[in-house]
Amino acid sequence: MTDQAPVAPDGADLEEWLDRHEISIIRVEGMALDPLSLGKQLHRSKFSGSLPKGPAVTEFVFGYDLGGTPSLGFWGDWRPSNLGDVHLRPDPATLSPVPERRGWASCMADFTDTAGRALPLCGRTLVRSLAGRLADRGYASRFAFELEGQLFEESFAEARRRNWRGLTPVGVQAPVAYLHQNHHRMAPFFEVVCSRLDEMGIVWEAWNDEAAPGQFELNLAPVDPVTAADRLVRTREVFKEVAHEQNRSVTFMSRVTEEYGNGLHVHHSLSDLETGEPVFFDPGEEGNRSRILDHWIGGLMATMPGAVSLMSPTVNSFRRLQGFLAAPTHLTWAGDNKSTALRVLSASPGATRVEHRVAGGDAHPYYMIAAILAGGLAGLEHSLEPPPAHEGLAWGLPDRFEALPVSITTAADALAEDALLREQLGSDVIDYWIGSRRFEWLMFHTTGGDAEATSPTPWEMSRYFELL
Amino acid sequence: MKVVTEPDPTPLVMIIAGTVRRSLDAPGTKGRIRGVRGTFALRSLNDPQAVSVTLEDSRVYVQRGSTGADVVITADLDLMAEPDPPKPKVSGAARHPRLALAAAKLLEPPLGSWRSEAERFMEFALRSPDMPRPVRVVCTDDGSEMTFGAVADEPPVLELHGSGHRLVNAMSGSTLITQDVLDGKLRVCGSLRDLSLMTGRALAWMFGGIEDD
């Protein structure tokens, strides 16, 4: 908690910034346990008056699942015992005009208790805390997301009416990528999306179609980890909003059809906090990998089976992590090899980075980055060495290679056993997350999901398509 | 006989494995199914849930699905614990009568009084430090009650009220306490925190009472 005057973007005075942008309504946004943006619209006077605590929302946002069922069977003592309030503490530095709504601004927020103390389960707070611990070691990190999703001709209402079956993907029905015919057909959608991202200051680098029906990829520019996750939250919202306005539908479910799934790869690198120089590159070491990078990889590899859960929130997430679907299936890393879980690129100082390829389009961006920072920090703190780089294709491997968890339950089990992630993230986070994922498993099996299905079920489409 | 589940079992697999274990512990059951071999399946009438139970020489193997089962029982899983449940549909019993009888025996373990079932559940539940305590269970048939996990003169943090029949179902794991509360079959007095933590223990009990550690 601070008594300092709130500071708007670029260090501006808050009221001056709101005046300059003629803002009368502020949308306060936070992300609880599932990867949904939640919050309230506040009148400007209420927004300013609520600072620094921000608006109250029910703590039940951490207590129910995507189907609206109370998630019972576990608890966190940071929760009020009987449906009390928590707060969404705005971060005024993230204020951004909402392009399609004149007079509106959006502001990202952290969850706190009623006394203003951070909630341990708030992913945004968690990422900031881990980035702070990295800063204590003298490093800054940058993350750049590659977001994949799928665009359909039908509106959400029409898709719902059809029970999410028989939808028409936007684009040519051919399993090839980078096709300009597809870009032409997707352009009316992406022109609006990209224009809004520009207006919100979200720097995007490229977009293109991908190989599954209606599939696309959007690349965001590298930024600090909290900003990267904030921007991913806002970007997914922009996609949903534009789709709704154009009577189309879009989803970031990890697997929608029998074809390739939707990934959320993230490239990341470390630099020296004072000089800004990259620290992953060392031309004197094998593969140009600095000792720091090797320890970072060592930590990511040691924690990857547990981290899969934090990167794969739904039953559907695991339909993507299967052989020959362009997603990783085994605990592997290598250089420029897109079949491994980690792809380590180290050709030059500025371009040296790690691409983490496990998460799907439905991932919780804060938990996903938290898992990466936690793994990397564990590697640095314990001087962990990476196993040998994988040679060859990393799909269809025999049993002597360690497979990644294949289901929401086995991933939760792996996380429960991960002492390093527990050390870095804390038991409050680990145990509550595991409880919530086991509840998702329970809901799948007991409310209509088909345990024997090998492709996305109606239960998954109904639960995830529109929300995620 | 050892009861073994498939890797990464479904909830129904875990529930039925627990049910079969309890049946096998009952006097006389092992003798009645001795020599019976084959697979029976239980399928949900209302959703895709299904489980197969294979009787082998030295073990019972429980896994998801019903494909290839010799005897298939299709039932409304939500109503199985009701006082007069609808009769399940059974196929294959004519060709495999002994297997069908074994299935009936294994899927319906003898249950005790609400008191004995509550004692069994609470003995298990209170092994976890997370389980709220003390808990009072009140039978609304006659107003009789039991208190578990008593700490000196502390009042109960949770009370469960219900008919003897409902309490037997809930305490034996035949139904989930919380679902019964949500359905109005049981009444509860306590905090959301304590209800949630008791639900965790009730689920673990329903899944066979096997501890994580």
Indicate the CATH class of the largest domain in chain A: Alpha Beta
CATH topology of the largest domain in chain A: Creatine Kinase, Chain A, domain 2
Q: Please provide the count of β strands of chain B.
A: 10
What proportion of the residues of chain A form beta strands (DSSP E)?
Answer: 15-25%
Strand order of the largest sheet of chain B: 1-4-3-2-5-6
Number of helices of chain B: 7
Find the biggest chain interface: A-B, 28 and 23 residues
Helix content of chain B: 25-40%
First-residue to last-residue Cα separation of chain A: 33 Å
Number of domains of chain A: 2
* Radius of gyration of CA atoms of chain B, rounded to a whole number: 18 Å
Q: Please give the largest β-sheet of chain A.
A: 8 strands, mixed
- The structural class of chain A is alpha+beta
Structural commentary:
The complex is a heterodimer of chains A (468) and B (213). Chain A is of the alpha+beta class. Chain A folds into two domains: 108 residues, Ubiquitin-like (UB roll) (Roll); 335 residues, Glutamine synthetase/guanido kinase, catalytic domain (Creatine Kinase, Chain A, domain 2, 2-Layer Sandwich), CATH 3.30.590.10. Chain A has 13 helices and 14 strands. In chain A, the strands form two sheets. In chain A, strands 7, 8, 9, 10, 11, 12, 13 and 14 form an eight-stranded mixed beta sheet that branches. In chain A, strands 1, 2, 3, 4, 5 and 6 form a six-stranded mixed beta sheet that branches. In chain A, helix 3 packs parallel to helix 9, helix 7 packs across helix 10 and helix 11 packs across helix 12. Chain A is globular and about 60 Å long. The two termini of chain A are 33 Å apart. In chain B, helix 4 runs parallel beside helix 5. Chains A and B meet through helix 10 and helix 12 of A and helix 7 of B.
Supply database-style keywords.
heterodimer; A: 468 residues; alpha+beta; Ubiquitin-like (UB roll); Creatine Kinase, Chain A, domain 2; 2 domains; eight-stranded mixed β-sheet; six-stranded mixed β-sheet; 13 helices; 14 strands; 34% helix; 18% strand; globular; B: 213 residues; alpha/beta; four-stranded mixed β-sheet
